[in-house]
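Case 305 in the screening queue. Each case pairs one protein sequence with one candidate compound; here the compound is magnesium ion. For every case the pipeline is the same: read the inputs, emit a complex structure as tokens, and attach any notable structural observations.

Predict complex for case 305.
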Amino acid sequence: MFALEIEDLTKVYPSGIQALKGISLRVPEGDFFALLGPNGAGKSTCIGVISSLIIKTSGCISISGLDIDAEPHLSRAGLGVVAQEFNLNMFETAYDVVFRQGGYHGLSRRQSRINTERYLRALQLWDRRDLKVRELSGGMKRRLMVAKAMVNDGSVLILDEPTAGVDVETRHATWDFLRELNGEGKTIILTTHYLEEAEQLCRDVAIINNGELIANTSVSDLLHQLEVETFIFDLAAPLEGELRLGGLEWRRREGSEVEVDLPQGETLNRVFAEFSRCGIEVISMRTRASRLEEAFVSSLGEYQQ
Ligand code: ADP
Ligand code: MG
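Case 305 output:
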């Protein structure tokens, strides 16, 4: 069974903005999954639809095998969502925020007390439990939102940019906690616009850009894809038979074009040398713009802290 299944999800806001243009993806149970994409890609819209804060335009979503339209409450019983924006009552105490959320999920008072203590302790907030939300630091508020989302002890936890704008220490503490939860078998799905966060934490990744899914693969495979640069060579004559390019990966294109993957560290001289060795003449060459690179141009390098 899948923890989350999204089928052809679209969302058009009343303003006319098409935030999601037919997204389909599946997250296996127990996975640690990143929904990665630059600002404005549609990540929060997607999370909003899953958590019922946003009404979708079309498409289907199932959580742990239950359709959210057919089973609006049951499907979300095992789900915890941490929103991107602060959505806490500033005048409640940290304890009450979490405890009352337990009640909202239908936990008994006793169970809610047990879970509240467990998650406030796990997130290093137990000694601050009597402080009002407005008395907590930004990092503490964010951790409180995680505790609140966890209080029903759900099997699927979705976090929308849990570490955007937090200090390094809080980021690492959050990562450790999420790894621990995932180790207990919970499915963790997070959105991020930091490739490095996905790399550090996640096993699988989907990338959205402009409301479209442009990749859905394992993190290791994605990193491999980002490491190679692809060049297109126009040859003097269409290629006949096989071509050995000294271990470089290549593919045929239309007409007399071939594309060659150049891993980091390899030089173009090497490719030309291989072509020459095979007696192949190259007329022109260009780089192939990668959709992945386009998606990350704005966010690569932003993560230096
Ligand atoms: P991300 O979380 O990936 O940064 P969002 O889902 O917040 O992206 O936004 C996707 C697109 O939808 C953006 O163009 C954004 O301006 C637009 N958008 C988001 N929320 C609303 C809204 N409530 N009304 C209209 N447009 C919105
Ligand atoms: Mg967002």
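Case 305 observations:
- The radius of gyration is 24 Å.
- Confidence is low (pLDDT under 50) at residues 298-305.
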